[in-house]
# Entry
Amino acid sequence: MTETAPPQHTPFEDAQGLLFGGAMAAFGIVILQSLGFITGQIAGLSVLISYMTGWGFGPVFFALNLPFYWFGYKRMGARFVVKTFIAVLLLSVLGQVFPHYVRFGTLNPLIGAAMYGFISGAALLALFRHGASLGGVGIMSLYLQDKTGFKAGWTQMIFDACVFVLALFVLPLQAVGWSFVGAVVLNMVIAVNHRRDHYIAG
# Structure
């Protein structure tokens, strides 16, 4: 019996998926910044730089992602790069806009860290599902794995470790600890739910 290829997403489905992912990721950044926390990957480095310099998260995140599109093109093609660029642009813009409209009067650190992980995990799952990402180290790590055999997961872990070590010189130890909780929740969401064999559409 010939296996039928799963149907592809329509342009409208891709558009709403990218919008959902970008908006949810931006809302997660609002939670982080409200609590004075960070996270891993390029998003975490961008938040940390914004704390250190006073620059807006959006422009920093957009600029730091620019070198990584080449790796994405070489590893996954032009379609992936275009979608990823759109997702990064959405997060960069909404990450600047949302803080003007969203305020938290009370936000418990544990609840905030956990909700950041859940919300950002959902955002990334949506983007992955629609053939995009939020750029950065994840793309480069896959490229390096193809070229050198060095595991992508190790590259990402090393980068995240460097971000958190740098954060120790900028943020209170307790804030770094809660940030780590949020990063663990985020990675657990991805690890448990990102299964291509569970998908029914490409």
Summary: Residues 12-197 form one domain.
